[in-house]
């Protein structure tokens, strides 16, 4: 299953209230994402893509592209 970065961005924008103009390599925390929103994002991504994301790897994946790669890795 190929994980589209655009779909990850949609989830990030919805959960975090970030502008839709966020780019694949933008740091979501630099863009205003909070740690509370990160927990909500973790849950939403796990539900949306039917994967379990380890907390330690999730916290290191700070861009939509990195999150997409992590989801792809866990979905394989």
Automatic annotation (TrEMBL):
Source domain of life is Bacteria
Carrier domain mapped to chain residues: 1-75
Q: Which PROSITE patterns match?
A: CARRIER (PS50075), PHOSPHOPANTETHEINE (PS00012)
Q: Which InterPro entries does UniProt cross-reference here? A: ACP-like_sf, PKS_PP-bd, PP-bd_ACP, Ppantetheine_attach_site
- Per its UniProt record, what Pfam families does this chain match? PP-binding
Keyword tags: Phosphopantetheine, Phosphoprotein
Report a single Gene Ontology molecular function: phosphopantetheine binding
Question: Where is coiled-coil annotated?
Answer: none
Q: What is this protein called?
A: Carrier domain-containing protein
Q: What is the lineage of its organism?
A: Bacteria, Pseudomonadati, Myxococcota, Polyangia, Polyangiales
